[in-house]
Design goal:
The protein starts with 5 loop residues before the first strand and ends in an 18-residue tail after the last helix. Helix content is 31%, strand content 25%. The chain binds flavin-adenine dinucleotide (FAD).
């Protein structure tokens, strides 16, 4: 192995895998480190949408009006575990500060810029991993039950349009034609006609991983406990043996791509970065994918119904409760109940799942060099759009590691913005 071209990637979710494949395309020898099966974290259970239209984040100036109802109504797509905000007041405050109009406009502009490059990052990987059969282009439909809900969403939708996102407004009659199995009457909808989704995000990760191994990549099944950097190289300390005496992976550079768990890795000065998690859930009904023709977003309930190759998945909602709290049965009950409002479903779902979106208060990912060493790169914090942005993130990381001018200005995504 050419030690100058050896790079370690921590985390084998969709972001780490995409970085690994792009680094291999640039001729790097890659060691991928993860204690779990590749793709088995947030990347497996998401709503499967390639949401290149999703430049409007959860952060919104309207949140100040709607927050009490959003947080405390049992019928809300957003929930906050009692005590969590009190233990993490700075993150919550930072999030609220990033809901001010000017800040939101900035996040939308930067997210839109990144999302516009989605396919430049994703297309080559789909070919490389022979995974095009996992992609469906059938559009995506946003639903509003009342005219009032539609009017309330107009400001956000206008912002999408200003940033080049194309969609068509549809009325109740057209919604019935597009999705005849939906039970409620919807007043209005938005159809993102060119949108795509993945038939199974876990299978996509597995295809990436197979390609990675076939191209000579090394998989190290272990937790990275710490990253230590020297003058011109790094060492990743693994979670085995005594600290200080644990096995290490030596490499020229390291990419930290451990999603919401990135902050737990010691050595890299991550502690000052306000990385937290927006927990999300899914319930799934095997074999019922024929009930909808495309991903359908039930906006007032905060989830998508997505037809996959193995069933119909209802995925979404946001819960602030950190990485360690057990799954909240009330959130799963909410999801199943509201899914049953949308379509005729069996009383109980076949699968239930909790996952951890990695989120920074400004809704932007961290992509770039660590502030302490040009041998440490960060790639995490993709919140609701990590499946969509993984490819372009991998491309940018590979360009930075290869000392090229990145195809997009990554300065706004630098960790330095928080320091
Ligand atoms: C309900 C829900 C719906 C979503 N819907 C969509 C959608 O429709 N479209 C979209 O684009 N995005 C969606 N997302 C967001 C998307 O799933 C995430 O942004 C994305 O999966 C994050 O990928 P990741 O690789 O950063 O993290 P993960 O997939 O969580 O991977 C992180 C990996 O790091 C490993 N790891 C952790 N700690 C260590 C360590 N110390 N050492 C080594 N490895 C470590 C973990 O085992 C894991 O394998 C959704 C998310 C949720 C929860």
């Amino acid at each position: 192995m050419d030690s100058d071209r050896h790079i370690a990637v921590i985390g084998a979710g969709i972001v780490g895998l995409s970085c690994a494949l792009w680094l291999q395309r640039k001729g790097f020898d890659v060691s991928l480190i993860d204690p779990a099966d590749p793709g088995s974290g947030a990347s497996s259970g998401n709503a499967c949408t390639i949401a290149d239209y999703a430049c409007v984040p959860v952060n919104s100036p309207d949140i100040f009006k709607s927050l009490p109802k959003l947080l405390f109504s049992p019928d809300s797509p957003l929930s906050l575990r009692p005590g969590y905000a009190l233990r993490h007041p700075l993150w919550m405050l930072d999030f609220l500060l990033n809901c001010r109009k000017k800040k939101v406009e900035r996040s939308i502009r930067l997210l839109a810029r990144l999302l516009a490059q989605t396919w430049d990052g994703l297309d080559p990987l789909l070919d490389q991993a022979d995974a095009r059969d996992l992609l469906e282009q059938r559009g995506c439909l946003y639903l509003y039950r009342t005219e009032a809900q539609f009017t309330a969403a107009q400001a956000g939708n206008a912002r999408r349009r200003r940033h080049g996102v194309e969609y068509r407004e549809v009325d109740g009659g057209e919604i019935r034609e597009l999705e005849p199995n939906l039970k409620p009457e919807f007043a209005r909808g938005l159809l993102f006609e060119s949108a795509s989704h993945v038939l199974n995000p876990l299978t996509l990760c597995q295809r990436y991983f197979d390609r990675f191994q076939r191209d000579g990549g090394t998989f190290v099944r272990a937790r990275a406990r710490a990253v230590w950097h020297g003058v011109d190289s790094v060492e990743v300390e693994l979670d085995a043996g005594e600290p200080g005496d644990a096995p290490r992976v030596a490499a020229r550079r390291v990419v930290v791509a451990a999603g919401a768990f990135s902050k737990r890795i010691e050595g890299v000065p991550m502690q000052l970065l306000p990385l937290d998690t927006e927990r999300g859930y899914h319930v799934q009904y095997d074999g019922l994918q024929h009930l909808v023709s495309r991903p359908v977003s039930y906006n007032e309930a905060g989830f998508y119904a997505t037809p996959m190759n193995e069933g119909l998945r209802f995925a979404g909602t946001v819960e602030f409760a950190g990485l360690d709290a057990p799954p909240n049965p009330r959130r799963l009950e909410f999801l199943a109940r509201r899914a049953g409002e949308l379509l005729d479903l069996p009383a109980k779902p076949d699968r239930e799942w909790l996952g951890f979106r990695p989120t920074l208060p400004d809704a932007l990912p961290v992509i770039g060099f660590s502030t302490v060493s040009e041998y440490i790169l960060y790639a995490f914090g993709h919140q609701h759009v990590g499946l969509t942005l993984a490819g372009i993130t991998g491309k940018l990381i590979a360009e930075l590691a290869n000392r090229e001018t990145p195809s997009l200005d990554v300065k706004p995504f630098s960790p330095a913005r928080f320091l």
